[in-house]
Specification:
The chain contains ten helices and 20 strands. It is of the alpha/beta class.
Length: 453
């Protein structure tokens, strides 16, 4: 969307009640959504900014994050064809997985949407959130903010109050989406991007959905604050991927929550490579018997990056299964935080849940990994376990490879790829796996070469 007609209040830094009203009016939203936004803004105002004294934030210092420093709305250029997208976005698309539908959010607006005709004929809906509000209001109103409500935390309140752009995906009962659906979030101005993703998959349907976040470089700080809500019906099967590779001027906050119906399967993969500071909450709600969740995570921190992940395997119903594996590599003066909780609610008997976090520290730098796996069991017939390891690269491994004629920096790369292999080997998408391998190699290569030099 061009800058024509954008209210002046949206062109100034900071968010206020006037900003929220202007944004809602600008988008011609229904009255119920305007009130939802204003309610979320009131929640944001009365909720203190989390600090190091708060248990959930005691390792991640965000004391210098000020919402008033960011533009609440970043206009987007008009796009009529995929070839009109920024060159960097087109490269990302070409390097990624083959897709049957594509959505691109450029700054604060969705600028391009494409969906295969066959999917449309089957009743699949994939569009930006505001188009969905106009054309499928009942589907949106019933579920929007249902899993990530305004009172989840302060950043969720801001997201609910000031979101723009976003995506809506609806897969009808029994529809098999064989080729992945993909969205890209691209920021190339100093400001903020606040997308919401709402996915509704009905009974017996299958889907792979990939969310990717990337940006152009910049010196001024920029903010990403999003929310993802995944409603998965009975017997449905969903793969969800979040690939965060922002440039280093970005601050990234995101909450991903899912609800699984009876015998539904949700596989999530959360990859964190970019940003200066990233806080991602990933929560799986096992809401019905037979539901199943596999939660995979991969992160790589260097320089002074802070990558913070909080996870929840919430077993609400009996006879459900979950398995979490998060692995991270660190170097330089970076910090990685993992805090995971398996919670078994009263009555959720026969729960079967596992949680593992492993961290690899490269070299002898000042990198630090904080790993906090937890169990909260309120039923007496369950099988749950959790574990955590943190260690440096064993010198024996690269030495063995070097003894076979492999240069040191290549040997260390192979060690890191082997470490991540336990996660990447579970990714069924060849294009995505190749893209991840390339991104990881680009990130580890320079650091190793600098240490060897």
């Amino acid at each position: 969307m061009s800058t024509n007609g954008v209210p002046e209040v949206l062109k100034s830094k900071g968010v206020s009640v006037e900003t929220i009203k202007a944004l809602s009016a600008f988008k011609s939203e229904p009255a119920w959504l305007t009130e939802k936004r204003l309610s979320a803004w009131r929640t944001f105002e009365k909720t203190p900014m989390p600090g190091l004294r708060d248990e959930a934030w005691r390792y991640t210092d965000i004391s210098d994050v000020r919402v008033e420093d960011f533009l609440p709305y970043a206009p987007s250029p008009d796009v009529s064809e995929e070839g009109d997208l920024p060159d960097a976005v087109q490269r990302l698309i070409k390097e990624g997985e083959e897709n049957s539908a594509l959505l691109v959010q450029h700054n604060s607006e969705t600028t391009f949407v494409r969906i295969d005709e066959e999917l449309s004929r089957k009743g699949v809906v994939f569009t930006d959130l505001h188009t969905a509000l106009r054309e499928h209001e009942d589907l949106v109103r019933e579920r929007l903010f249902g899993l990530v409500p305004e009172d989840y935390d302060k950043f969720a309140a801001l997201s609910a109050a000031a979101f723009s752009g976003g995506s809506f995906l609806y897969v009808p009962r029994g529809v098999d989406v064989e080729v992945p659906i993909q969205s890209y979030r691209w920021l190339d101005v100093t400001g903020s991007i606040m997308p919401r993703t709402l996915v509704v998959v009905e009974e017996g349907a299958t889907l792979t959905y990939i969310d990717e976040y990337a940006s152009a470089g910049g010196q001024e700080p920029a903010l990403s604050n999003g929310a993802v809500e995944l409603f998965v019906g009975q017997g449905a099967n969903v793969h969800y991927v979040s690939l965060q590779n922002w440039e280093r001027n970005m601050l990234h906050f995101n909450t991903i929550r899912s609800s699984a119906g009876r015998d539904a399967v949700i596989n999530s993969l959360v990859v964190s490579l970019g940003s200066e500071l990233s806080r991602t909450n990933v929560e799986a709600g096992l809401a019905a018997p037979g539901s199943d969740s596999e939660m995979l995570g991969l992160y790589f921190a260097d320089s002074n990056q802070v990558l913070d992940h909080h996870t929840l395997q919430d077993h609400i119903a009996p006879n459900a299964h979950s398995d979490l594996l998060y692995k991270g590599a660190l170097r330089d003066e970076s910090l990685a935080v993992f805090s995971g909780l398996i919670r078994v609610e009263p009555g959720a008997q026969k729960t079967d849940a596992y949680q593992t976090n492993r961290n690899l520290i490269l070299g002898t730098d000042e990198a630090m990994a904080v790993s906090l796996p937890n169990l909260e069991i309120m039923a007496d017939d369950v099988k749950c376990s959790h574990g955590s390891t943190t260690g440096q690269v064993d010198d024996v491994e690269p030495f063995y490879l070097m003894s076979r004629g492999i240069p040191r920096h290549e040997a260390e790369k192979l060690v890191v790829f082997g470490f991540f292999g336990e996660v990447t080997s579970r990714i069924p998408l060849k294009g995505l796996k190749a893209k991840l391998d390339k991104a990881i190699e680009a990130k580890i290569g320079l650091g190793f070469e600098e240490r060897v030099a």
